[in-house]
Specification:
Oligomer: single chain
Helix content: 40-55%
CATH topology of the largest domain: Spore Coat Polysaccharide Biosynthesis Protein SpsA, Chain A
Number of strands: 10
Number of helices: 15
Order of helices and strands: HHEHEHHEHEEHEEEHEHHEHHHHH
Structural class: alpha/beta
CATH architecture of the largest domain: Alpha-Beta Complex
CATH superfamily of the largest domain: Spore Coat Polysaccharide Biosynthesis Protein SpsA, Chain A
Strand content: 15-25%
Length: 386
């Protein structure tokens, strides 16, 4: 049976979902590029490689950019192109970038295109790069990221059986710093062992709270941008990648490769987005994304529903076991004053500061009820004995 989309009312889930697919254009700044025109002009080159790698740079990290390019040069799967996006770069820094490119082997240099973007926030160069991209998939790196030799190989293998879905692999974090000595002022040093901070499968629930998938661990199908019109928000000063993933994951779906393929470097003495923007800016942007999510209809895949049902089951069983254990303590007359304080404090803290009742409040109230009942039972037994 064919479904006539026109029969659905404007307030139905399907209509709201379809409406949401066409709202990405409002995230663009006025002086941006005509992305649709660029895509149409280069249509015959689309899908000519497996992966388009977008690298954002401001030309201020020459040494790390060289390492990023070196890690791509070493890829076991060479079916890729590189689009180097110089965002709001001064003339002096452009020369730095061009010098780095001149150092690359000729065959590898042919894979690289340099595009200058002089407008917008962090999402603007990504939109520009995606418009020029010729890959069936698109990945995003910063100019200090390092990927292992099998990075593209793992994405390619995953895409063979999951074409059209967002590809996700594991990434480790590592603390780095910049040092200097008599010979150089641009020495990079690792300050600790890699940590498996981003080494877990994509979680539909935890992703709603914070981003657990840095861009270097993802490969997006190009149709999201080129055919469906999804765009990065060019006005967000931070978390533009988190916002884009939130708006596309429930459309394309996500598939995991439980293999570590990259290092997400964190810097202790180098300027980055974390140091450039105060915490209130990050919070404001997160709030904007959360408000946008609240007004969006979602398509939740089976693994998302499974995650929700598992969580609810664990919480329900956990509360039941907690209550049963407390009843056992009461029967054995092993209730201590610390137990009473715990539930009194827990309940009133939640009501005063959270100002709304949740599942844990129900547990606290149930425990207090048991305690009060047992108290009066003890009083009654003592009275009867007298």
């Amino acid at each position: 049976m064919e479904i006539n989309i026109k029969t659905f009312g404007p307030s139905t889930n399907l209509e709201m979902l379809l409406k949401g697919l066409g709202e990405s254009q409002k995230f663009l700044v006025n002086d941006g590029l005509d992305y649709k025109k660029i895509i149409d002009e280069d249509r015959f080159n689309k899908n000519s490689v497996f992966l388009s790698v977008l690298i954002r740079t401001q030309g201020k990290r020459r040494e790390t950019l060289k390492e990023t390019l070196l890690s791509l040069y070493a890829q076991t799967n060479q079916d890729f192109e590189i689009i180097l996006l110089a965002h709001k770069v001064e003339k002096e820094c452009i020369r730095e970038i061009e010098e780095v490119l001149a150092l690359q082997p000729a065959k590898f240099r042919e894979k690289i295109r340099l595009i200058r973007v002089s407008y917008g926030e962090r999402g603007a160069p990504l939109n520009a790069g995606w418009a020029y991209a010729r890959g069936r998939y698109v990945s995003i790196l910063d100019d200090d990221d390092v990927v292992f030799a099998h990075w593209i190989e793992e994405f390619s293998a995953l895409a063979n059986t999951n074409m059209g879905r967002i590809l996700h692999a594991y990434s480790v974090t590592q603390l780095w710093s910049r040092m200097s000595n008599a010979c150089s002022s641009h020495i990079l040093r690792a300050c600790g062992a890699p940590r498996p901070f981003y080494c877990s499968n994509f979680s539909w629930l935890s992703q709603l709270q914070s981003n657990s998938c840095p861009t270097l661990s993802l490969a997006f199908p190009s149709y999201l941008f080129q055919e469906y019109g999804f765009r990065f928000d060019e006005m967000l000063t931070t978390v533009e990648d988190y916002d884009f993933l939130q708006r596309t994951a429930h459309i394309a779906g996500v598939v995991d490769a439980p293999v570590i393929t990259s290092i997400y470097r964190k810097w202790e003495n180098v300027e980055n987005s974390a140091t450039l923007h105060p915490i209130d800016v990050w919070d404001k942007n997160i709030l904007k994304i959360n408000e946008r999510t609240k007004t969006t209809s979602w398509v939740l895949p089976p693994e998302g529903m499974s995650e929700i049902l598992t969580l609810l089951s664990v919480r329900r069983i956990g509360r039941a076991l907690q209550i049963k254990d407390f009843e056992r303590k009461i029967k054995q007359r092993k209730v201590f004053w610390k137990d009473v304080k715990k539930h009194i404090f827990g309940y009133f803290y939640s009501r005063i500061f959270k100002k709304k009742q949740n599942a844990e409040d129900v547990v606290h109230l149930f425990m207090l009820n048991l305690i009060i009942r047992e108290y009066f039972r003890q009083k009654l037994r003592k009275f009867c004995k007298n």
